[in-house]
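hey m, so remember when u said the tokens were messed up on ur end? i reran from scratch. heres the input so u can diff it against urs
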Amino acid sequence: MKSIDYSLYLVTDSSSYEEQEFLSAIEIALQNGVTLLQLREKEATSRAFLKKAIQVKKLTDQYHVPLVINDRIDIALAVNADGVHLGQNDIPVKAARRIMGPNKLIGASAKTVEQALEAEKHGANYLGTGAMNPTTTKVITQITSFSTLTEICNAVKIPVVAIGGISKENLWNLKGANIKGIAVVSAILSSSNIQVTTQSLAKEIQELLIENQNIR
């Protein structure tokens, strides 16, 4: 499997966009520093999700950014996405790995060390841990403490990405945690200037990752 840059991981929310506006926003983000994209469509029908996945895949291919699909292994396979991201209520990582084979990327949400170790054991390539802060998305979240994030990072060998209400203003609250990146939604997609915001976040997260490496 190719090396993945998890540093600035964009999770999509198209609910406040028209179709072309959404694709334009995604393209701007891809042009300006997003390193991994997760297409998340909680409310869409399967047909609508597939259509959007095909459109987004063209963009991620153009900018050489890996695409993972939230929850839906069938959609991921249908568009030949790089992988899937699975929550605790989705199909288990072990079953997903059996379906998708050894070369696809599988991410898993983990809020506890136990969940993290289980996902790693069964073939997850990376973990998403949070929510670190209150979020403005429609997804129901439970706050994860910094100490829990740190414990998860120290317990597993696979990359951990922090998620949940992260922005430039609170990013440095993650100083000292051995994360490999941050996952954001609103910080980019609700910005009035996606280009500037994405560039700024990309620069800031690189500085944080370097600082965290120096601490260890």
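this time it looks ok to me. The helical segments are 19-31, 46-62, 73-78, 93-100, 113-121, 146-155, 186-189, 194-215. if urs says something different then somethings off w ur setup not the seq
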